[in-house]
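Supplementary Methods S3. Complex input for the flavin mononucleotide-bound model.
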Amino acid sequence: MNVQVNLAGVILKNPIMTASGTFGSGAEYSEFVDLSRLGAVVTKGVANVAWPGNPTPRIAETASGMLNAIGLQNPGIDVFCERDIPFLKQFDTKIIVNVCGKTEEDYCAVVERLGNEDIDMMEINISCPNVKEGGIAFGQDPKAVEAITAAVKRYAKQPVIMKLSPNVADITVMAKAAEAGGADVLSLINTLTGMKIDINKRCFAIANKTGGLSGPAIKPVAVRMVYQVANAVKLPVIGMGGIATAEDALEFIMAGATAMSVGTANFVNPYATVEIVDGIEQYMQENKIEDIQELTGVVK
Ligand SMILES: Cc1cc2nc3c(=O)[nH]c(=O)nc-3n(C[C@H](O)[C@H](O)[C@H](O)COP(=O)(O)O)c2cc1C
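Predicted complex, serialized as structure tokens:
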């Protein structure tokens, strides 16, 4: 049985990876999960300098999901390279570094720096709804998507994944723009902008007023968008949004995703990623599927 997948020449032992921002750089979760069982670890977003993130409260629970407005808190690329990459290198898994920035120069500085590091891929977050500059400002305009993709590609030594926002009228327009800019892989979806109000305190539940909705509540939207994008571009797609079980992950594969990220589910069940790897293999055995690629995009 073959569960390996190929993302722009990088071979993952299985299609399950973590979703950026929900797994740190793996250190805390390594007490629960053997990171060597994962196809890849995708790190929390890292910028050229340390960011403090947004004021608290920064998370709130919702029906079948959560809102967050962390604001891309991170220690900066220097600490990340010294501390987090050596930690992850101890494991037999691929390392995908999620990159954030406020300006094109910020993104390119991180991407250039990562060129000297022993990592496998980079995921460029142009879709964070929780920062005022950068992030989603790049992800909602196709010209900006193409330009930032092309700029990053000029500096990148590893394959580049562009992470798309669902907070747009037509995600296929953004996907085609990233493809035109030279992206190697696309990932989707980032969180959907939402709001919650605390009626007892009569204020916003999150200090930032709005936050990004994630978890099972967004899965049907994510599956629809993965299907649309996989049929609109030639690039491999990493699907995410509400995946908590192997059945969820299989929906994304059948919609056209080559690999899948598991995010919010890690907060509820720290074993979610490995349980999903096992569940996919069990489904393949029961259904006599020899190669996972037999399932990719089977729904037309
Ligand atoms: C607390 C939290 C922090 C996140 N931080 C990042 C981040 O730093 N960079 C990024 O690209 N996406 C970030 N995301 C988005 C997730 O990677 C993912 O796209 C989204 O949550 C949908 O997947 P899920 O429903 O499985 O969580 C974050 C999500 C959450 C819940």
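Residues 5 and 11 are 6 Å apart (CA to CA). Residues 19-22, 44-45, 68, 70, 72, 98, 125, 128, 163, 190-191, 214-215, 218, 240-243, 262-265 surround flavin mononucleotide (CB under 6 Å).
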